[in-house]
Predict the structure.
Amino acid sequence: MFKKILIANRGEIACRVMKTARRMGIKTVAVYSEADKDAMHVEMADEAVCIGPAPSKESYLLADKIIAACKQTGAEAVHPGYGFLSENEAFSRTLEEQGIVFIGPKHYSVAAMGDKIASKKLALEARVNVIPGYNDAIGTPEEAVRIAKGIGYPVMIKASAGGGGKGLRVAFNDQEAHEGFASCKTEAKNAFGDDRIFIEKYVEEPRHIEIQVLGDSHGNCVYLHERECSIQRRHQKVIEEAPSPFLDAATRKAMGEQAVALAKAVNYQSAGTVEFVVGGKDKAFYFLEMNTRLQVEHPVTEMITGYDLVELMIRVAAGEPLPFVQKDIPLQGWAMECRINAEDPFRNFLPSTGRLIKYAPPAETPGAVRVDTGVYEGGEISMYYDSMIAKLIVHGSTREQAIARMRDALNAFVIRGVASNIAFQAALMQHPRFVSGNFNTGLIAEEYPKGFNAVDVPHDDPAMLIAVAAAMHRQYLARNGSISGQMPGHEFKPGSAFVVRLDDGADREVSVEPAAGGWDVTFSGDRYEIRSDWQFGQIIYQGTINSEPFCMQVERRGLKYRLFHWGTQVDLMVMTARAAHLQALMPHKAPPDMSKFLLSPMPGLLTQIGVQLGQEVKAGEVLAKIEAMKMENVLKAERDCVVEKLLANPGESLAVDQPIIAFK
């Protein structure tokens, strides 16, 4: 067994690999960019080596620097995690030539299956079901349009080296095919250093189901059941679960056997994933691609099988045989994973960067709740890397229990300083289609066609939040009202009547009376019996409202209370009637008119200005492109206009709402 391994990655996956290595008694080496010098994975490792500036193409994507770090520290093997160099055939081959073990498949397997075009040809030879498409690299947007028309719209435009939703677009017409090809090519070159693009038929109403495979150097290869990955936004997985609520035992077996056949065709030795698109009506399945690495969602497989996939990868790389055969692999209970990302669901999921002022994940419980992360309170979420803050994983004996545990865990997850998608995840966990298991990859687009907003939040009734804020304010006054030195008989006594004001400016009259174990709040003719043993200074308050359990995060800011429920934030002001009257008399200052400016919707790097000074622009034309968290974001004109000023230059780092272009 190895004595020391280097993890050629960052963030949560680097930390996750280190945890297993530590348990196995293996020392670890971290590599880090200048932006990650204070990162968690650097702190966790036994040794750490800086390999370059913040951009990944100048650090994490430089194989020679990682190999030099191995030689400097004496690391015998490299675990690549996912992304970066994890599916780079030249990297794994060079490591092998240098006498360093790659904890993953052999370089020839990476070359065969990591390349999506070559893997489709191999799949055809192995008699694996393959979706119709054009499997050679496409050179120009015009050629892409011609091929797409030949296949028939809709089509999926994909980067050969792509993954994680990057370098992928769906086109329904010639214009979308032309633009999608250009965006995919740029995105793929920046993210993977490989801009080859191919096109395949887009199966409508599909389910995305993948099979986890595991092979060793002794000729053994098995599948560890499936993962349902159909809940996606812009082809990026949002929620994963295992097993799938859609598959029956016969389909599971057929898909697993095809996945193993494909893996054996390339002498696959490590953990890998064979992805399929499955028809919603007849359960017909087609091979999409094989990821020759560990997947982001691997924890759900670990939860239902009890196996540590990272440990098995390390043992296989060290030459050990698999410790089980196909018939021994258990399928126990149900597991789910939510990706907690630094993005704002109320602003069309734009990336959010900054400092984690507060980071408090739910308590981990062995076999029930698990949190994989690479961040800490006070740490920085950078614009240079992907948006993942953490992976929240739960397990239950049934799917219903897993959903219930995930809801509770999401509501207890505290993140401040950057926006997160917790509210969106909570809404999905409550959505009837998800709960029923009757969904496909189009669920989010179909159910949220205008984006996500506060109305979609599971508990959007402000009355409950008003009642809680009023009760907390009454308790605060009761606790802090007695001032030392007051004359006997003249002490301050808090009243029971308050005015609560939400962001809409309207006042609500509320009365609060102490009761055994809490407070009784009357509001708009309704009575709320709030029972809780909360203590100020804590963040999470648990108790009951009208005998129903609740969990809420509250911060007090002067007269204001900021309540977080299911990931959403509501600010309420609680005051006396006189204070409310005086507040209402204060003049309101209107914000400046910014309608004639193109504003940056996110922090990011301005990569392109698509217009010139004085140019007449038509609605729908590209104005600018911004790269943030490894994704290219195209900003288009909403209406006809004329460019008056260019206020930013390509290569400039932009802040949120920074003006880029001024229009006449």
The CA atoms of residues 141 and 178 lie 5 Å apart.
